[in-house]
Design goal:
Distance between the termini: 20 Å
Structural class: mainly beta
Order of helices and strands: EHEEEE
Largest sheet: 5 strands, mixed
Strand content: 25-35%
Radius of gyration: 13 Å
Shape: globular
Number of helices: 1
Helix content: 10-25%
Length: 91
């Protein structure tokens, strides 16, 4: 279990992302395209073209974290926009 603070926002990068990218280039995309600070402690989620792979970057105040999740079957449901961002908050 990863202890993510309760006030953490989750930002979904609409559209597709090149999944060869690592933390540094995904952080640059969060900064330039999403207009958010990748070192803010929020989670930034990116989806690959096929839809079965996610990468999440998170700065936990001690260092950079890069998580990935690949589905064996199915696809992640994702915003249909070609560009932009969506913020997800807890209910």
């Amino acid at each position: 279990m990863i202890p993510v603070p309760s006030n953490t926002r989750v930002w979904l990068a609409a559209g597709v992302t090149d999944m060869r990218r690592g933390f540094t280039s995904l952080a640059a995309k969060a900064e330039q395209v999403l207009a958010e600070d990748p070192y803010s402690g929020h989670l930034f989620v990116f989806r690959g073209r096929r839809g079965d792979l996610l990468k999440i970057i998170w700065w936990d105040s001690q260092g950079a974290c890069l998580f990935s999740k690949r589905l064996e079957k199915g696809r992640f449901v994702w915003p249909g926009a070609k560009a932009g961002k969506v913020s997800v908050t807890a209910a």
